[in-house]
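Entry for the shared binder. Reason: the reviewer on the internal report wants the predicted structure included alongside the sequence.
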Amino acid sequence: MSHWGDKPVEFELTETQKDIQKAAREFAEKEFDSDLALELEKEQKFPKSIFEKACQLGFIGIEYPESYGGQSFGLFEDILVIEEFTKKDSGIGIALSLTDLGASVLLKHGDEKQKRELLIPITQGKGFLPVALLESMDGEGQTPMIIKRRDGSGGYLISEGKSWVTYGSLSQFIIVLNRGSNFGLLIEKGWKGVKITGLKKLMGMRISPTDEMVFNQVEIPEGNALPNSMEEQDPLSTYLQVYRIKTSGQALGISQGAFDQALKHAKEREQFGRKIAQFQGIQFMLADLYTQIEAARNLVYRAACGYDAKSPDLEKLSLVTKLFTTEVAVKTTIDAIQIHGGVGLMKEYSMERRLRDAKTIQNLKESNLVQRALISRKIVSI
């Protein structure tokens, strides 16, 4: 792969990257059963056995250093895996890619003890590391919710806050971040003041159980802090950038999978004595989708490479990438359903689930309206 720099990057995969891509594709083809996915979604249940197999083969934590159980690759290689997984099945692919959202924060801002204690179990299929991004109980978000104690006792206090946390009920440890603080906190689910109030029934992402958690007067020892150890980046920025890029990888896979299914159907389905792929209206739809997916792929790959190369302009690029790719995913799944006709609306068929998953990842954490506002501020510098 070409090095990151000021000039445009041409994404030509190395042989190793092609092998990773192929291995992820073969694993998904073998393990991601559509009937199982339907059952898992109905029960809002995580695919534990698939997760454990993915860990055994090194797909989870592929970007961790070998000393923490990983493969010592980068976010780019992780994106290649996410793309292949969500291309095959959006629900299972998203579920596997969300198991370690806090790992990027820990890798950049955690200490050696924290990394060894938390990252190695993930690669062994024995743990998760989710992130709780705090908001105030009243939804206003004006008051700092993480406070550095000044009373001589040391440590920190989460005064009061709430968050939707994917795998919150399944995880022992959770990284808590607050938009008003330049550090993160590592907490345990069983601590006093930490409470799970219920499972959220989302439109999509139903194979990734998401819980609402409430934090009230939670005391955190000094040693559980993840400080701003980098000159120009805090834990929250690290998390948001990686979250946007991983979400973009999910969106890319969803789009490509929907397109592949729609193209196959168009070549096989006959109407008025002709394959529907021969109708110009269908051809134009497919041409537009193909073009948009190729553009999305270039953005995703560029953003992932930019993260690995510590690009200084990654904040804006990650916003643009997530905005564009998730909108492409929603449009692609809608048009793919249109090409399929009535069969595309059936729950037994994966297309309507792809649409629900695409719309859900488009709106979680930061909706695309919020991202447009953030991008515009950076463009006009206000």
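Summary line for the report: Residues 291 and 297 are 10 Å apart (CA to CA).
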